[in-house]
Amino acid sequence: MRTFTVGPEDEGQRADKYLALTEPEWSRAFIQKLLEEERVLLRGKAVRKSGRVSAGDVLEVDVPPARETAVVPQDIPLDVRYEDDWLLVVNKPRGMVVHPAAGNPDGTLVNALLYHCGDSLSGINGEIRPGIVHRIDKDTSGLLIVAKTDAAHRALASQIEAHTFRREYRAVLHGHFRDTAGTVDAPIGRSEKDRKKMCVTQKNARHAVTHYKILEDFGAFSYAALRLETGRTHQIRVHMAHIGHPVAGDPVYGPKNGVTELHGQCLHAGLIGFRHPQDGRYIEIVSELPPYFEAFLRKLRNQYGRDTHAEG
Question: Which of 12, 114, 147, 205 is deepest in the core (most CB within 10 A)?
Fold first, then answer.
């Protein structure tokens, strides 16, 4: 049984939308099924699909036993940076999709994990073994944590929800920043104009905070370190575009005449830190910049020169 306490920012939200925003790893179809089967309770009574939640409500969700996934294991090489009986940390290459979906039925990280881990992966969305605790976009490279047990999955997910799970990224951003450090605190929700995109909005949105620090200033571009306080879909890409500094190469949120040579956003998940679900010890994993990123930085340094700010 999972419990969710509704915060004031979700006052009046539809129950299905509230669960989709609160538990982004659950698919919309899975949430609808939970509601249809009366597995979502408020004060002991089943919540209707169109039911509204109020601040302070405590929803009890009876998650059904996991069923076997139809995803096929594939022998795809993985860059594993840490592994034990509870979890593993993978350094995902850019271009690799995390979950199978329409247009990407195989060749994904989940396919590779099923081959690497066998039956030792946690359940999610009611399916056995995918194990993914959080996601990074297809064309974002870097570190991703995977749970091998349901207990590890719940413990890691609770750290993310409590904002104690550390996630730091490196990115090349468009433009010159007046301030060398700052914070973007702006809610993110689904765009009403394009349902495939996210945007800064007050409607059906979730609290989102991104901290940034400029490491090198090239004038036309800036090399930055970014730290997620929350973890919304496309958060860094949306926040940086919102303040007028989209990620270089971003085909969705960047300028139309963007850096096409990058073939995707110049964004790398370079550090994750967390408390181990078994004994609480702090673990921090760091991933070096990938070749495509280093090559682009060299080009910028040669073309524009270099104004370096202190790292830390």
Answer: 147
Q: What are the pLDDT digits (tens) for 6-45?
A: 888 888 888 988 888 787 667 777 888 899 889 999 988 8
Given 10, 16, 57, 137, the catalytic residue: 137
Do 175 and 198 have their domain in common? yes
Full-model pTM: 0.78
Give the distance from CA 53 to its chain's centroid: 25
- Whether residue 142 sits in one domain with residue 115: yes
- Identify whether 137 is a catalytic site residue: yes
Angstrom distances, CA of residue 157 to CA of 135, 141, 279: 12, 21, 16
Taking the C-alpha atoms of residue 60 and residue 236, their distance in angstroms, rounded to an integer, is: 32
Collapse the DSSP code of 30 into the 3-class scheme (helix H, G, I; strand E, B; otherwise coil) and give the result: helix
C-alpha–C-alpha distance, residues 169 and 283, integer Å: 17
In angstroms, rounded to a whole number, what is the distance separating the alpha carbons of residues 10 and 176? 36
